[in-house]
From TrEMBL:
Domain called Amidohydrolase: residue spans: 84-539
Organism name: Eucalyptus grandis
One Gene Ontology molecular-function label: hydrolase activity, acting on carbon-nitrogen (but not peptide) bonds
Protein name: Amidohydrolase 3 domain-containing protein
SUPFAM superfamilies the UniProt entry points to: Composite domain of metallo-dependent hydrolases (SSF51338), Metallo-dependent hydrolases (SSF51556)
InterPro entries associated with the record: Amidohydro_3, Metal-dep_hydrolase_composite, Metal_Hydrolase, YtcJ-like
Source taxon at top rank: Eukaryota
A cellular component annotation (GO) from this entry: perinuclear region of cytoplasm
């Protein structure tokens, strides 16, 4: 076996992948096609995947997977979208195709059943945000809820809005926006914590479905060479904090005790529940088994760029009164972080806009000063857009930047439109600047916002060439192959206190590794592609 083909402990360990997408109820509802056939969600007889499929269909010329049922093509797209049973809108670049896919889903569903899915990116069709009126006519008997690719915004049709009791008289919840026209009419778009107003109306999936989805999602992650994931749970601003704990006890602990865990997980929980996590750690320690690790707590500072809710010092280019959303008051964020940190818990905070990142950096600096010196490994999830000097503060304060390279591909065009080219070019996705002198840069995927494919993300970090571009976006921020792999492995393990067991192939550590389809380091270093031939967990071959 050529040692050059073995990549250290993960081209695998992904930070923030949310690999099981325990993020919200609608996603679990959309996993039904993983399970035995139901009339509203047909299951394929055959799935062809892991190849390049030319379709001769102008709306989707190429795909890597195809589902077949009763001799006819059921769905074409990515393997992830076929197995996860969503209305896949990720590649849609025309309004007409957006509507067609939702109409097709409605035709295949019972009246009254929910049409769920997402992944849409309005920048692909020019930037216009979708409206409920686009799909109302083709979904008169079905409620619809489809989220934007970043998970911070979703579109509901009029049926869904009525079921949820959302009207033009409804007030915006704290940390969220119910989008309206200039005349006050609902557009169907719900942003950040406003999504909770609708999600409560989507029927919960059964416990058995959630458990089955865990197994299926884990198998898919293994095919990509992922052996350990960090899961932040079904948690977003305004969501019930109990969801993450329900999944911990009813899904993860069940799978562990019944021998069904096949991938290692590090779990984070809502910061409001820090005392519950502390109690678990005091009773059982951080390592519950060879499969389950207790991580820390998470909070949100802002929204996302694509939803125009990321928090910036300067307003959005075409929205002079919009600086984004601050999802938590400074005093509350400081108090929750102080309390969690004083209890010895690791803290991770979502921040995308430059003002949100400065806010969190300030909070972390204050907490460290108040609680004293210790190995705390504070994390900022995403750290996508930074003000001048902020990248250096990460290194100076010992803050870990948990970054997802493939988001760069989706944001390159929209960042210039929303922020202006100069501002976007100077402050976005500063991989090399964040790497600093202490290696505090950890990579992940944020699946299913982006596909769970570390090899693709490593290539992105090396090349930084968005679709349709000839040159890199921010060439001085490109990483070397070694730096990108380290960010996915040893640095990612360090970022969640797992580096004693994972993250590198060293004597005494767990033998988690992958074998790739190439034995040429130079090929990968030049930005070449490769695929996973085999994934090993604890020295035992898993799948494929």
């Amino acid at each position: 076996m050529n040692l050059a083909a073995i990549v250290s402990a993960a081209v695998v360990l992904l930070l923030s992948i949310l690999s099981l997408r325990l993020l919200d109820t609608y996603y679990w509802s959309s996993l039904r096609s993983l399970l035995p056939f139901t009339p509203s969600s047909p299951v394929a007889d055959l799935v062809a995947w892991n190849g390049t499929i030319y379709t001769s269909d102008a709306s989707l010329p190429f795909a890597d997977a195809m589902a077949v049922r009763r001799g006819r093509v059921l769905r074409v797209g990515s393997y992830s979208s076929l197995k996860m049973g969503r209305v896949e809108l990720r590649d849609v670049n025309r309004k007409e195709e957006f509507v067609r896919r939702i109409e097709e889903a409605a035709r295949n569903s019972k009246p009254g059943s929910w049409i769920l899915g997402g992944g849409w990116n309005n920048d692909l069709w020019g930037g216009e945000l979708p409206l409920a009126s686009w799909v109302d006519e083709v979904t008169p008997a079905n409620p619809v809820w489809v989220t934007r690719m970043d998970g911070h915004m979703g579109l509901a049709n009029s049926v869904a809005l009525e079921l949820a009791g959302i009207s033009k008289l409804s007030e915006d919840p704290k940390g969220g926006i119910i989008s309206r026209t200039a005349d006050g009419e609902l557009t169907g778009l719900l942003i950040d914590s406003a999504m909770k107003l609708l999600l409560a109306s989507i029927p919960e999936v059964s416990l058995n479905e959630r458990r089955e989805a865990l197994v299926r999602a884990s198998k898919y992650a293994l095919t990509k060479g992922v052996t350990t994931v960090v899961d932040f749970g079904r948690y977003f601003p305004g969501a019930p904090v109990e969801f993450s704990w329900q999944d911990f006890s009813d899904v993860y602990q069940w799978a562990d005790s019944s021998g069904r865990m096949i991938i290692r997980v590090c779990l984070f929980f809502p910061v409001e529940t820090w005392s519950l996590l502390l109690d678990q750690i005091n009773k059982f320690g951080r390592v519950l088994s060879q499969w389950i690790y207790l991580g820390g707590v998470k909070d949100f500072a802002d929204g996302s760029l694509g939803s125009s809710s990321a928090l910036f010092h300067e307003p959005y280019l075409n929205e002079p009164h919009n600086h984004g959303l601050q999802l938590i008051e400074h005093e509350r964020l400081l108090n929750m972080t102080v309390t969690s940190d004083k209890s010895g818990l690791q803290v991770a905070i979502h921040a995308i806009g430059d003002k949100a990142n400065d806010l969190v950096l300030d909070v972390y600096q204050s907490v460290a000063s108040m609680n004293g010196v210790r190995d705390r490994r504070f994390r900022i999830e995403h750290a996508q857009h930074l003000a001048m000097g902020a990248a250096a503060r990460f290194s100076q304060q010992g803050i870990i930047a948990s970054v997802q390279p493939d988001h760069l591909l989706d944001d390159a065009d929209s960042a210039s439109k929303k922020l202006g080219k100069e501002r976007a070019d100077l402050g976005s996705y500063l991989f090399r600047s964040l790497l600093g002198s202490n290696g505090g840069l950890a990579f992940g995927s944020d699946w299913p916002v982006a596909d769970i494919d570390p090899l693709h993300s490593i290539r992105t970090a090396i090349r930084r060439i968005p679709p349709g571009w000839e040159d890199p976006w921010g060439p001085t921020e490109c990483l070397t192959l070694k730096e990108a792999i380290n960010a996915y492995t040893i640095s990612a393990a360090h970022a969640c206190f797992l580096d004693n067991d994972l993250g590198s192939l060293a004597p005494g550590k767990l033998a988690d590794f992958v074998i790739l389809s190439t034995d040429s380091w130079d090929h990968l270093a030049a930005g070449g592609s490769a695929s996973v031939v085999a994934t090993y967990i604890g020295g035992v071959r898993s799948i494929p």
